[in-house]
């Protein structure tokens, strides 16, 4: 059995207490003197002026955040965006260049000579001087102006509205009606009547002209988002806290029904949120902790520092929002584009969602 360091060196330690290793190596039947020497020293009383250690401090309230699901319900663009001035001029140049490079068939390939279609073709070709119907008055085979195929500054030929009018005018059909002469058998008169052509719907709707922000028939070339006004007057996306073990996807579906009613055919896209936003309160709120399972202490509380919003993406397929029977205390709603959302949200709220919303 190994011996103690002091026993090996034949040196008495400065203290009367042996080391732990020596205590374990002692035989069970020790002399009384050895047992007396191994007794611990008595606890000395604290000097005057010193107090005992303080009792443990009470448990402070737990710090947490409220978790809410927020739905970014959107209507996607229904039309392509408006062309820029450069794009308009470029597309008109390409169509005129195509007239110069393409050799069209003879008109007799399409119309039999002397027929009403051939007569109508001759009339139209004299007016526009080109087979194309939407490039303005341009002769691609003329030596004087065939090379001048670029649009001039301020010209209306590159505007989509002007091209639509040209196509509608070309689609008109002239009908000649002959009226019989009078009772005396006079000459018959001929009257030219143009058959009406159905016009396409304009890109600007009645809701755009009226400024109706509740209508989905506005800004057809932009993405619109549903924003609602709460009881405190703050504009925000439809939101609510999670109930029990509810998922974000299920909570988003429930929020739309409770906030916007059943008159909306919506689709929650995916189970993963687009992003999240932490909104801290100016002063933390203390409330009773209802999730505490410790039956011995029911007076625990928790400190709410703010709210964490998780944004879920949604699409409206049909219908319209109706706040008449909503259960969230909402007072108003609007369908707004990104730049319009910026004007009604608080600055800190806008900075959290500006990179999530679509530009158009």
How many β-strand stretches? 10
Give the N-terminus to C-terminus distance in angstroms: 87 Å
Q: What gross morphology would you assign?
A: elongated
Which regions are unreliable across 5 or more consecutive residues at pLDDT < 50? 5-15, 31-37
Beta-strand residue fraction: 15-25%
Helix content: 25-40%
Radius of gyration: 44 Å
Helix/strand order, N-terminal first = HHHEHHHEEHEEEHEEEEHH
**Count of alpha and pi helical runs:** 10
Main sheet makeup: 8 strands, mixed
Structural class: alpha+beta
Q: What would the average pLDDT be, to the nearest integer?
A: 80
Question: Can you describe what's shown?
Answer:
- It is a single chain.
- The chain has 360 residues and is α+β, with helices and mostly antiparallel strands.
- Helix content is 25%, strand content 23%.
- The chain contains ten helices and ten strands.
- The strands form two sheets. Strands 1, 4, 5, 6, 7, 8, 9 and 10 form an eight-stranded mixed β-sheet that branches.
């Amino acid at each position: 059995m190994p011996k103690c360091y002091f026993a090996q060196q034949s040196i008495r330690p400065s203290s009367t207490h042996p080391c732990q290793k020596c205590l374990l190596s002692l035989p069970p039947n020790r002399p009384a003197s050895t047992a007396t020497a191994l007794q611990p020293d008595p606890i000395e009383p604290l000097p005057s002026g010193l107090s005992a250690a303080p009792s443990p401090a009470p448990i402070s309230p737990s710090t947490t955040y409220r978790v809410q699901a927020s739905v970014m319900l959107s209507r996607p663009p229904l039309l392509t965006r408006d062309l820029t001035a450069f794009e308009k001029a470029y597309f008109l140049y390409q169509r005129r260049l195509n007239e110069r490079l393409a050799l069209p068939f003879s008109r007799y390939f399409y119309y039999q000579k002397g027929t009403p279609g051939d007569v109508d073709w001759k009339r139209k070709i004299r007016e526009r001087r080109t087979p194309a119907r939407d490039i303005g008055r341009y002769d691609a085979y003329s030596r004087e102006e065939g090379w001048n195929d670029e649009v001039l500054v301020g010209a209306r030929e590159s505007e989509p509205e002007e091209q639509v009018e040209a196509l509608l005018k070309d689609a008109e059909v002239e009908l000649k009606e002959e009226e019989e002469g009078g009772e005396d058998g006079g000459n018959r008169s001929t009257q030219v009547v143009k058959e009406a052509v159905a016009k396409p719907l304009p890109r600007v709707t009645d809701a755009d002209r009226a400024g109706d922000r509740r209508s989905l028939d506005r800004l057809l070339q932009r993405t619109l988002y549903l924003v609602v006004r709460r009881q405190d007057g703050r504009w925000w996306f439809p939101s609510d806290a999670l109930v029990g073990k509810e998922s974000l996807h299920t909570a988003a579906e429930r929020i739309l029904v409770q906030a916007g009613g059943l008159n909306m055919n919506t689709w929650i896209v995916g189970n993963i949120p687009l992003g999240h936003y932490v909104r801290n309160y100016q002063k933390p709120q203390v409330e009773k902790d209802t999730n505490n399972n410790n039956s011995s202490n029911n007076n625990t509380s928790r400190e709410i520092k703010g709210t964490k919003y998780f944004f879920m993406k949604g699409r409206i397929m049909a219908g319209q929002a109706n706040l008449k029977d909503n259960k969230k205390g909402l007072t108003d709603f609007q369908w707004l584009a990104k730049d319009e959302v910026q004007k009604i949200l608080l600055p800190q709220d806008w900075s959290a969602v500006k990179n999530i919303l679509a530009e158009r």
